[in-house]
Amino acid sequence: MAFCRCLFLYSPLHRAPVLVPSKPIRFFTRYTYFSAKFTNHRKPQTPFFCTCCSSSSMESPPEGYRRNVGICLINSSKKIFSASRLDIPNAWQMPQGGIDDSEDPKVAALRELKEETGVSSAEILAEVPYWLTYDFPPEVREKLKHQWGSDWKGQAQKWFLLKFTGKEEEINLLGDGTEKPEFGEWSWMTPEQIVDLAVYFKKPVYKEVLSVFAPYLK
Hints:
This protein is of the alpha+beta class. Helices cover 19% and strands 27% of the residues. A hairpin with a 6-residue loop joins strand 6 and strand 7 (92-93). Helix 3 (191-197) packs antiparallel against helix 4.
């Protein structure tokens, strides 16, 4: 049985620790960080299938999928940035967001990173040279149909690997103030932790992304 150790300080967010197997990691809120010792008793997820590869053309994502960028941000220790979603308990993810009409995916990646994390000190190292897609579960698709006003099957993503070149004080989960905050806590993680803590329908895409970027993570 795997354990994770961390510090536990008072946080105004009053959030329970997320269950994490594997190596010790630190969790940061927008105010402070906490840690605790716990074991993983996660319930098994419902099986879900998604398509991990699609068109290699930047201009031709699959029909019916929302165009999106994903950002794999690494620090000098080759650890990957991940943050906990406010709307899905115990779900962590790498930053991502929609691509605006006529927007270049690289520009969208830098914009989304700043909007969601406050980070602007980053440089692009690599990208996955094809679109990756995942399907929304029925309940998620229905929720987003009302939120977005469009009925998308899922998301088609262009993934970029970025290196964080700033100081950690720059990271602010309130973002740059242009969008509603999406995350509650953040941490630098190993690839294994990234996949383990991801919501189940994104895991196959995460595995593919981290496989492509593996040479940069060693």
